[in-house]
TrEMBL record:
Pfam families named in the record: HEAT_Maestro (PF21047), HEAT_MROH2B_C (PF23227)
Keyword check for RNA-binding: no
Domain Maestro-like HEAT-repeats: 28-165
UniProtKB keywords: Repeat
Protein name according to UniProt: Uncharacterized protein
Domain Maestro/Maestro-like HEAT-repeats: start-end pairs: 339-588
InterPro entries named in the record: ARM-like, ARM-type_fold, HEAT_Maestro, Maestro-like_HEAT, Maestro_heat-like_prot
GO cellular component annotations of the record: cytoplasm
Cited PANTHER family: MAESTRO HEAT-LIKE REPEAT FAMILY MEMBER 1, MAESTRO-RELATED HEAT DOMAIN-CONTAINING
Length: 588
């Protein structure tokens, strides 16, 4: 074993291609041109991506997060460039680290002191989103509530990318409309955190989207989702979810510059109620329909699947939309589908009231459509006119009132007697709303007081007119007005010019207080002269009110009966049962 001879051969090592530019990069870094520094850092980041494996690169990324908060602006910006470049080139490999990376960048945003670095970090979050959109979006919206300003700006940064915006919106809509929005706990139902986070996310996104996008691309989806959300924020253990929804809705209204919608959202206190919110939602739907008539069909198509939604609140909101939509939709096929849906939902106690309102509104369109739907609508409304729930009774009469204003007489003639008989008990109900609806409907029936039904109608009206006259002194102002309206519609059909002149006085203006003593005297005098044979029936009907629970009605009945008797000629008083009449007055 002799000594090893020294070789004179020199081994030439060839630098890998991706490292060959390092010397030149180093030279640029040594210079004073900051932009050259940044360019070199970006190129170095690309070299690093070539050299390191996934695990090492992840460790490097996590380590870079601390550099974002460097007090030296160029240093933090350089860190940002390296971070963004690595994510851009190798982001596909970082799925398992999305949560820590997003969390780290959000924390860093709270400490960064240079605006350029803030913007660069937001750009890095958006770059990571292009590789893993839903994981990044979820990492942001699942951040602790209330969301920090940096979470909000990150979501807004993502929404500025058209493709990411579509993914963000699709995900948000899916959470709000199709996920388990309501969770059951031992203390009752609560709104899920995911649904609350999604609601807030919509608010953030609305605030940066241009009105042109909101009004064009997804207008129906935005509006429908917000309306459906009302149904999943009722009875969830607090008003926070509902307030978040209204804030999002207000932001939407502001962005599309719809002042009427914004005013409704801020003034309708019922929208915060767990039970009384549907009428407020219907006002929003009416505003939407008036403002964006071309979106009626898209809204109908969007909410249609939720008529069988998992949550009763969603089904309630669909019914509320239908109930209002029939007022401004002119598409016959859609109207027919809505009417059919409302007829079916009447059988659901939870949806019955709104269904009745919707059916009543269904005749507000063209006369042709009103008459087409009239048979089924009138039958349905008549079936609940004596419902045990007073609001349903009232809305059934309001709906019939709407229908009878426009339908052809042939639709009503066969049921006229039945309608009168079904209304009569409601004239004396304790609820003033019920009484007002009943008297108003009685007046509308005057449309059918001529022609073949003339004699029948007059008999029915004479049977009910004493009640109308006496309720002119009803304690409720709306009932008084309803009775005045009915008098002006019904009296002309009696055929007395003097009575017509009487109700033409300003006494019957809605804003004028009727002096009942003067009216009673004048009406009795003219009525006795025109219809002496009917006076006994009127007197007997009037003294029935001597048993009324309302003192004002008892007093008015005594006055009116006395006036009728006073003007009745002596030779006709024998047609009255004096014993019954005298006993009634004595016992009053």
């Amino acid at each position: 074993n002799g000594p090893i001879e020294k070789s004179e051969e020199v081994v030439q090592l060839e630098m890998p291609t991706h490292l060959q530019g390092l010397s030149e990069m180093a030279g640029r870094v040594e210079g004073d041109v900051v932009s050259a520094h940044y360019g070199a850092v970006g190129e170095m980041a690309a070299v690093v991506c070539e050299c390191l494996g996934d695990e090492e690169l992840c460790k490097l990324l996590m380590g870079l997060l601390g550099g974002l908060t460097d007090v030296d602006g160029p240093a933090s910006s350089g860190t940002c460039i390296m971070l963004n470049t690595i994510i851009k080139l190798r982001g596909d490999q970082f799925l398992s680290q999305v949560g820590p990376l997003v969390s780290g960048m959000i924390v860093a945003l709270g400490k960064i002191t240079h605006e350029k670095t803030v913007n660069g970090t937001l750009h890095s979050i958006r770059t990571l989103s292009r590789h893993h959109p839903l994981p990044v979006i979820n990492a942001l919206i699942e951040s602790p509530q209330p969301h920090s300003p940096h979470v909000i700006t990150s979501l807004q940064a993502i929404s500025k990318d058209p493709e990411l915006l579509e993914i963000l919106l699709d995900h948000t809509f899916d959470v709000l409309n199709n996920s388990q929005c309501i969770e059951t706990t031992k203390d009752g139902d609560v709104a899920s955190k995911d649904s609350q986070n999604a609601t807030c996310t919509l608010k953030y996104v609305f605030s940066v989207l241009p009105s042109s996008y909101l009004l064009d691309e997804r207008l129906a989806a935005f509006f429908s989702t917000l309306v459906l959300r009302f149904g999943t924020t009722a009875n969830v253990g607090g008003d926070k979810p509902r307030k978040e929804l209204i804030e999002a809705f207000v932001t939407f209204a502001k962005q599309v510059e719809n002042e009427e919608m914004e005013a409704l959202l801020t003034s309708e206190s019922c929208l915060l109620s767990d039970t009384a919110y549907p009428p407020g939602v219907m006002k929003l739907v009416a505003c939407f329909g008036k403002s964006y008539p071309d979106s009626i069909l898209p809204v109908y198509n969007y909410i249609l699947p939720y008529s069988k939604g998992n949550f009763k609140g969603q089904r309630l909101m669909v019914t509320a939309v239908y109930a209002e939509m029939v007022n401004w939709s002119t598409n016959e096929e859609i109207l027919q589908n809505i009417v059919n849906a409302l007829l079916i939902s009447m059988n659901d106690d939870h949806l019955c009231l709104l269904s009745i309102i919707g059916l009543g509104n269904s005749t507000s369109g063209t006369p042709e459509l009103a008459n087409k739907f009239a048979p089924s609508v009138i039958d349905a409304l008549m079936s609940v006119i004596e419902h045990k729930v007073e609001d349903i009774c009232m809305e059934s009469m309001n709906g019939l009132n709407n229908a009878f204003k426009v339908v052809e007489a042939s639709r009503v003639q066969p049921i006229l007697i039945n309608v009168f008989n079904r209304i009569r008990p409601h004239l004396a109900k304790k609820s003033p709303k019920i009484r007002a609806s009943a008297f108003r409907l009685l007046g509308t029936l005057s449309r059918f007081g001529s022609g073949l039904n003339g004699k029948v109608f007059l008999d029915l009206m004479h049977a009910n007119l004493p009640a109308v006259i006496l309720h002119l002194t009803d304690a409720d102002r709306n009932v008084q007005i309803a009775c005045k309206e009915t008098m002006r519609k019904a009296i002309p059909l009696l055929g007395s010019e003097e009575l017509n002149a009487l109700i033409g006085r300003r006494w019957f203006d809605s804003n004028i207080r009727l002096p009942f003593d003067s009216f009673s005297n004048d009406f009795a005098k003219k009525f006795v002269a025109a219809f002496p044979d009917l006076v006994p029936n009127y007197v007997m009907s009037t003294i029935e009110f001597f048993q009324s629970d309302w003192p004002q009605l008892r007093a008015s009945a005594a006055l009116f009966a006395g006036d009728l008797l006073g003007y009745l000629p002596a030779h006709q008083r024998g047609t009255l049962n004096a014993g019954i009449v005298c006993t009634a007055f004595i016992n009053l």
